[in-house]
Amino acid sequence: MASYKPVVVPACPKLGERITQDTLYWRGYKTPVQIKEFGAVNKIDFSPVPPYNYAVTASSRIHIYGRYSQEPIKTFSRFRDAAYCATYRDDGRLLAAGSEDGGIRLFDISGKAPLRQFEGHTKPVHVVGFLSDKYRIFSGGDDYSSNLWDIPSATEIISYSEHTDYVRCGCASKVNADVFITGSYDHTVKLFDARTKSSVMTIEHGHPVESVLLFPSGGLLVSAGGRYVKVWDVLKGGQLLVSLKNHHKTVTCLCLNSSGQRLLSGSLDRHVKIYSTTSYKVVHSFNYATSILSLALSPEDETIVVGMTNGVLNVKHRKPEENNEKSQKKRQPAYRTYVKGRTYMPKQEDFCVSKPVKRVLRKYDKLLRSFQSSKALDAVLEPPIMLHTPEVTVAVMQELHRRGTLRSALAGRDEKQVNLLLTFVARRVIEPRFTPVLVTVADMITDIYQPVVGQSAIVDKQFLKLQEAIGKEIDYQEELLEVLGMMDTLFATFTKKRDTCLEENKSNGLTEIIETNRNY
């Protein structure tokens, strides 16, 4: 009896991923380090001065981490309840944070106890930040108010009560020391000037605003809320420049890189999208384990830190550049070491020993060898194979069809198995590399299970999806044929014109030669 030959899975060409400079750059980060916090991480902020430590606000504590440390180098825990939005001052010496009890605390990085406490909000304070003059703090709370505080005297300068819902985000202008911006769940973003008693600009975002960001120049404002990231021109009175909808769930945080040429957004859909600030197109994307609440990029773009809802802090560092001089100095084995003995020819008196190669069969090959067609098909309909290597599933179907046992393998299945089978066929039948096999499979499934149509809503839904997919593909093919017909007509016209021009040139050339001969 001849030995069993495993199923040959054809190597189908795939569309390669487009490799750009951004792809290479953002892939240049090491495997992330995971740090577990006490609760959901609501804010991450990097110190603007070396060594670029970062403050992480989670639960009722603020932890200060060094760039490469996995344990906090300092902890501020003087909070009765949850702490929010710990933010560094521009000189990196002071840290301000809001709290659940409505108070604002100001800490010296070198100390432990608060330097100042600001009382005035009646509900939790989720937004705290420094104005660029370093002597004033702005805040926003769940009492719908936005306040401005004086640091030396620890007193309230002015309070704005223009929002009609929770104030959950804000930022200050680096260009003008009197300007700060707040975003609220009332769908608006308001721009305040400390020299006036009311807001100077109101922008309607359209969704509860989760994060706002000002470009370093102060001319462009970015707001995030719902699934949208919107860019506004402040100098033109808040004109909308672009609206981005690349996330599937609420966008929770925004961040700019050091040059301002890349915008990062984190979302509850577990993705961080990176946009070019010239074209506002996504140039790269990171995927994380759970929903993202906070995001920060170090001032030199060396570290990306992401905080998630499960309390995990994800830290990625850039890989150091390899030193080419050291790698060149390392001695490599000579070429003759690798080719030694390859050209040796055995002599007549030599005894050759060949090591038998053990062949390991996959699960579906073992089942096919024992003629268990239905179980072999079940083995390749498992989700990991269907999703990542669909060519294996199609190859087994093709082998069963060659053996003449495909119909029997498809028959006798319950509702769940038929649903799985139809899902795979409806998804992959439009791919040219799988179409010849899957059209035959779809035809057999329709013939076998036609009598039970109408008895299961799930199976009926999958049949409708299959019909819709095939119908769309037929429409695409018809449109392509029309385009090909138009192109053939154009090419034929161009060819005809070219031939006519050549004939005219040849005839003109002959006429000129005849006239020249006559003159002689």
TrEMBL record:
Residue windows of the WD repeats: 118-159, 244-285
GO cellular component, one term: nucleolus
Sections of the chain in a coiled coil: none
Pfam families from the UniProt entry: UTP15_C, WD40
Keyword rRNA processing among record annotations: yes
Subcellular location: Nucleus, Nucleolus
Ranges for domain U3 small nucleolar RNA-associated protein 15 C-terminal: 344-490
A biological process term (GO) from this entry: positive regulation of transcription by RNA polymerase I
InterPro entries for the chain: U3_snoRNA-assocProt_15_C (IPR018983), WD40/YVTN_repeat-like_dom_sf (IPR015943), WD40_repeat_CS (IPR019775), WD40_repeat_dom_sf (IPR036322), WD40_rpt (IPR001680)
Gene3D superfamilies in the record: YVTN repeat-like/Quinoprotein amine dehydrogenase
Predominant location category: nucleus
Domain of life: Eukaryota
Record key words, sorted: Nucleus, Repeat, rRNA processing, WD repeat
Job of this protein: Ribosome biogenesis factor. Involved in nucleolar processing of pre-18S ribosomal RNA. Required for optimal pre-ribosomal RNA transcription by RNA polymerase I. Part of the small subunit (SSU) processome, first precursor of the small eukaryotic ribosomal subunit. During the assembly of the SSU processome in the nucleolus, many ribosome biogenesis factors, an RNA chaperone and ribosomal proteins associate with the nascent pre-rRNA and work in concert to generate RNA folding, modifications, rearrangements and cleavage as well as targeted degradation of pre-ribosomal RNA by the RNA exosome.
PANTHER family per the UniProt record, alphabetical: U3 SMALL NUCLEOLAR RNA-ASSOCIATED PROTEIN 15 HOMOLOG, UTP15 U3 SMALL NUCLEOLAR RNA-ASSOCIATED PROTEIN 15 FAMILY MEMBER
Name of the protein this chain belongs to: U3 small nucleolar RNA-associated protein 15 homolog
Organism: Gymnorhina tibicen (Australian magpie)
